[in-house]
Amino acid sequence: MSKILVLDDNEAILDAIHFILSRRKIEVVTITDPALLMPSLQMHKPDLLLMDISMGCYDGRELCYQLKSSPSEKHLPIVLFSAKSYTPASITACKADAFIEKPFHIQKLYTVLEQLLPQEA
């Protein structure tokens, strides 16, 4: 079973994503505080990180860049999502594996995740 860590400062969005992904038999861990990202990654060892870009004083693109620059986390697939518009260049610059605009269609989310999650044997 794949495990996804979801970071968003909006609990209603986390609840919705948790419900959507759990239907696909994906283990979902949610956090609302970006300051807990590193400890959560170390504790849960997810197969993928799904993260909002705009979280108060935190920018998910910067967090993504830091993770992708870290030897221990650089191979972790990271999918960013946001209701705001961002240039493709800013998504590429932070080394995100994918970007999804909110509100997103459930099938679009499933498709992106299926492309990035390890295939079960």
Automatic annotation (TrEMBL):
<dbReference type="InterPro" id="IPR011006">
    <property type="entry name" value="CheY-like_superfamily"/>
</dbReference>
<keyword id="KW-0597">Phosphoprotein</keyword>
<dbReference type="InterPro" id="IPR050595">
    <property type="entry name" value="Bact_response_regulator"/>
</dbReference>
<dbReference type="InterPro" id="IPR001789">
    <property type="entry name" value="Sig_transdc_resp-reg_receiver"/>
</dbReference>
<protein>
    <submittedName>
        <fullName>Response regulator receiver domain-containing protein</fullName>
    </submittedName>
</protein>
<dbReference type="GO" id="GO:0000160">
    <property type="term" value="P:phosphorelay signal transduction system"/>
</dbReference>
<feature type="domain" description="Response regulatory">
    <location>
        <begin position="3"/>
        <end position="117"/>
    </location>
</feature>
<feature type="modified residue" description="4-aspartylphosphate">
    <location>
        <position position="52"/>
    </location>
</feature>
<dbReference type="Pfam" id="PF00072">
    <property type="entry name" value="Response_reg"/>
</dbReference>
